[in-house]
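FIELD: query
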Amino acid sequence: MTNSVFKLSEKTSWCPGCGNLPLREALKEALEQLELDHSNVAMFSGIGQAAKMPHYIDINAFNGLHGRAMPPALGMRIANRNMKVIVESGDGDNYGEGGNHTIHNMRRNLNVAHFVHDNQIYGLTKGQASPTTGFNQTTPVQTNGITANPINPLQLAITMNATFVARASVGNKEHLIEIMKKAIEHRGYALVDILQPCVTFNKVNTYQWYKEHSYILEDDYDPTDKYEAYKRAEEFGEDGIPLGILYQADQPIFLDRQPQIGDQPLVEKNIQPADRKQLINDFK
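FIELD: result
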């Protein structure tokens, strides 16, 4: 075990009972159980209650714009292949404002662990519908009910050939920790959609609701079967919500497809200003 400890701050701005609190504890334990040094881990987030995570855990972090967690994470991945990179924010930040970045980095198979706090609501801005809010559900903003179908992030990820697609719940901490560890260790893009209640603004998808409607995938479930994974990802709500790794594949990652970068991290390369003159002359 390393001497580094992923310390948690004592005070947060989250509501008492918020699902972000057990999620933060699970993340800390996952990092420590992997015996990672916090100096070699970087987290990137956007805007929202979930995106405040870097404020409340001792970790290298970039807290950026709404929906823009992926671009700086891509920059870190290019600059230093030796870092463990985590992208995390809420369902609105990642599937709404950040939807394009999420989709295209699935295509790239960027080597990151992507943890989405999915409470099916916008918590920071007082409870309007997010991309995963259920059809016909009412909110303080959509008082007549949601008229758009919710996005299915797991089916989207499988369709885009993401190489690790999983779901977990803060209501099952030990299972969540194991899924997080496997996502961090996965070589490639790893999506973990994490079910967590918003106790203030979402009175439908509560701790009890998730407990009653979710189940852990069977021991003999085969995560390499893409078509079965897509079918299981369809399940949500009354049909049951499968928890676990729905799909996993071994494919070349983004850096494998960029041989010009080489094996040495860019941060360790000695680049002289004079080396650029030839590049500039080539464009004249």
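FIELD: remark
The mean pLDDT is 91.
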